[in-house]
Structures are given as structure tokens and as C-alpha cells.
Design goal:
Length: about 425
């Protein structure tokens, strides 16, 4: 049997019979290694090489920071700020849901953490105030996707580390599409609220808005410290993550005092577990990605694509469709590592700048977190809202289409996403 066919075919078979993704990756890779008689140590070496990356050290810092924010009451402060500024608009809590996700995204870098933290507070509140359960779950899941678009982003760290693309420039390129997707979600919320007469919150007096915002200024400065330090070369993305975590700990332990010191061991141990499990999947995915490159699949696929179309829009269309499909059953992290050689080969064939390719890939794969059967954010929101996945997905479809519209705009007008990194990090385009 052809090794590439064995590799991908066995992997999809394992996924179909519900073998955990990490083990499916390892077993299918091992089968090919044995078939083509590569040394067994190649499996171990590639697993180690894949995760022996300095930028990947940023991931646990951001994961722990998300936990610290949830336990330390910072998420609640962001909720009060959002309510003060947009709660009075028709469909108030829906707008608050989106806005707090945008603010939360600038701190945690994790969509799943956003869904759990924000959804745990807002889903029951929205349902109780009269919002439809389907819409409530849908807007919570869809807005949480901003957690991996608006910087910092764990996905972008991984993409930059594996694809040799500037993480700082990727962060900056995520600002515009993240804000655009958030605004389209708020516009849809307003439309639906007018149509279904969803309630709004009482208007907060302007002095109270200022006081509420000032109370949340310390955590809101963390994203600017992260981006500013990376942009001006003060520290790397990994060092920025550690600085952000230290600041977060100071806020919850010393300033706000919402988290007792005795809780720190539990927070750090949970962070280790939350980091180690996906890192095992990353290590296994690195082996498959290496085998795909070793078997010359990127060149074959690029030649095949060029035989169909050589146009910029044609290749981007096929790439987006491909990413949407694999995003339905693979996590964005596994998708990036496994298929990055193929993705970059397609980008090179179309003459796409690596940074623009990176932001489009991250945006498209992010949508996989709200598409079943994988759809981790949709799954978490469904569990909180006690709603079936099919009903929730139907309610999420309009928001999914709106996000795809933003991606299409970014493909047609690349500078829409790239003008900020071009202005602040021109070296990334040399």
C-alpha cells in the first residue's frame, strides 16, 4: 500500500472509531514507519524535536493566566465594564457577551477558557432574562472564538513556532479581523433582539461607566504590555507570556486579593495538566507532519492544485474549504501541525505572503471550534446551557457565515489585516 495513503487512511479510520486523536496520530505514524522500515527511534526523535521549541513555552503561561483570571474575579470585572458600555443597547446581555469575550481574548489566548469562564456566568443570566436558549448558546460559543483571534493567541504561537513566522506580527494581524468579527456578531445580536424583542439592561450613568472602567484598567493594560513589548523588541512572545502571568498573579493576589495564596499550588498543577495533555497530541502530530513532508506530499498536492488552478483566489478557495472540512473533526492545534507543510506549499504556489497565509489559516481553523463533531467551544456552551449540539449548531450558522464573510474580505483585501503589522513590524515583510 502507498505509505501516504496508509498514513492518512489509517488516521481517519482511527478517528472514525473514536480512538483519541493523539493515539490515532501516533498509531498511524508508527504503521508507516514500520512499513517503510525507518528506525523506530525516528518516532521518538520527532516527538521530542516537535515540542522542543522555545515559543511553545508561552502556551502554559497563557493557560495558567486564564485560570488565574477566572478564579481571581478579573472576568467579572470585564463583565461589569462591558455591561456599563453596551448593556443598554437592545439585546444588552448579548452585546455584553460579545464584548467581554473580546476583552477576555486579550488576556487568555484560549477560546475554550473564554467559553467556560464567560459562558458560566452569562448563559444562565441570558436565559433567565428572556433570551432564547439556542441564541444564547450560539452567541457564547461564537464570540469565544475571538479568544484565538484577538492577540495573544495560543494558535498563533503554535503556527509561528512551527511555520517560522513572526509570532508578534501574527498577533498584530489578528487585531482587525478579531474586532470585525466581534462587531458583526453584535450587529446580528441587535438585529435578532429587535426581531424577537430581547431585553436590554438599564443605562448606566456616564460617571458610573468611568468608575467601573477605571476599576478594570489594571487587567486591561496587560494586552498592551504584551503587544507593546513584542512589537518594540523588548521581549519575545514567550517572555511576554511570563510577564503577563506575573502581572496577573500580582493583581489577584496583592491588588484585588480575590485568590488566596494557598490556592496557587492547585492552580499551577492544573496548568501543568492542561498543558501536558495537548502537548502529547502536539508531539504525535509533529511525527505525522514530518512523515507527510518526508513522503513529499506537499509537493504532490501543490502540483495537483496548480493543475486545477494557478490563481490566487482559486487556491485560497480550495484552502479555505479544506481547512473548514478538517476543522470539523480535528482541533486547530493538530490541524496546524499535521497539515502545515501542505498549507505552506499551497501558499507558495499562489505567491501568498506567509504572514497573510498564517492569519487566514488561523481564522478559518478557529471556526472549527464551533462546528461539530469537534466544536469544543460549542460543546462546552451546550453543556452549560443544557442544549443539544444540533440545535445549537443551527443557531450558530448565521454567525459562522458572518465570520466567513470577514475572512473573504481579508482574502480580497490583504492589507485590511496586514496594515498594522506592516506599520509596526516592517521587518516581518522583508
Amino acid at each position: 500500500m502507498d505509505p501516504l495513503l496508509l498514513l492518512l487512511g489509517s488516521f481517519f479510520v482511527f478517528i472514525a472509531i473514536r480512538v483519541p486523536v493523539a493515539f490515532a496520530l501516533a498509531l498511524s505514524s508508527l504503521a508507516v514507519i514500520l512499513q517503510i522500515e525507518l528506525p523506530f527511534m525516528s518516532l521518538i526523535n520527532q516527538m521530542f524535536t516537535g515540542i522542543n521549541s522555545f515559543p511553545l513555552l508561552a502556551v502554559p503561561f497563557f493557560l495558567i493566566l486564564g485560570r488565574v483570571m477566572n478564579d481571581g474575579g478579573i472576568t467579572e470585572r470585564l463583565l461589569h465594564v462591558s455591561n456599563a458600555w453596551v448593556g443598554h443597547i437592545k439585546g444588552g446581555l448579548g452585546h455584553v457577551n460579545v464584548m467581554v469575550s473580546m476583552l477576555f481574548a486579550g488576556l487568555s489566548g484560549s477560546a475554550a477558557a473564554d467559553t467556560a469562564g464567560v459562558g458560566g456566568m452569562l448563559i444562565p443570566a441570558m436565559i433567565k432574562s428572556g433570551f432564547g436558549k439556542e441564541f444564547t448558546v450560539a452567541i457564547t460559543a461564537a464570540s469565544s472564538v475571538l479568544g484565538v483571534i484577538i492577540p495573544p493567541s495560543v494558535m498563533m504561537i503554535l503556527y509561528g513556532a512551527m511555520g517560522q513566522v513572526s509570532v508578534g506580527a501574527l498577533f498584530l494581524s489578528g487585531i482587525v479581523p478579531g474586532v470585525m468579527i466581534g462587531l458583526t456578531q453584535m450587529a446580528y445580536t441587535y438585529y435578532l433582539a429587535r426581531k424577537l424583542n430581547y431585553p436590554s439592561m438599564p443605562r448606566v450613568p456616564f460617571p458610573q461607566k468611568v468608575i467601573t472602567t477605571l476599576k478594570a484598567v489594571p487587567p486591561l493594560t496587560i494586552p498592551f504590555i504584551i503587544l507593546g513589548g513584542i512589537t518594540f523588541g523588548i521581549y519575545t512572545a514567550t517572555e511576554a507570556a511570563s510577564v503577563a502571568l506575573v502581572l496577573g498573579l500580582i493583581l489577584v493576589l496583592v491588588v484585588y486579593r480575590n485568590t488566596p495564596w494557598r490556592d496557587l499550588p492547585a492552580i499551577f498543577s492544573d496548568g501543568v495538566i492542561a498543558y501536558s495533555l495537548p502537548m502529547f497530541a502536539v508531539a504525535c502530530a509533529c511525527v505525522m507532519g514530518w512523515l507527510i513532508a518526508y513522503l513529499d506530499a506537499p509537493a504532490m498536492i501543490a502540483d495537483y492544485m496548480m493543475g486545477i488552478t494557478t490563481s490566487y483566489y482559486g487556491i485560497y478557495t480550495m484552502l479555505v474549504i479544506f481547512l473548514l472540512i478538517i476543522g470539523t473533526f480535528l482541533s486547530p492545534v493538530a490541524s496546524i501541525i499535521i497539515f502545515l507543510p501542505i498549507i505552506q506549499a499551497m501558499g507558495n504556489a499562489a505567491g501568498i505572503h506567509p504572514l497573510h497565509l498564517g492569519i487566514i489559516v488561523n481564522l478559518t481553523l478557529a471556526l472549527g471550534q464551533i462546528t461539530p463533531p469537534y466544536g469544543i467551544c460549542l460543546l462546552i456552551a451546550c453543556q452549560i446551557g443544557d442544549l443539544s449540539m444540533p440545535k445549537a449548531f443551527l443557531a450558530t450558522l448565521p454567525l459562522l457565515v458572518l465570520a466567513l464573510g470577514v475572512i473573504v474580505l481579508g482574502i480580497v483585501f490583504p492589507n485590511l489585516f496586514l496594515f498594522i503589522p506592516k506599520a509596526l513590524m516592517p521587518a516581518a515583510f522583508l
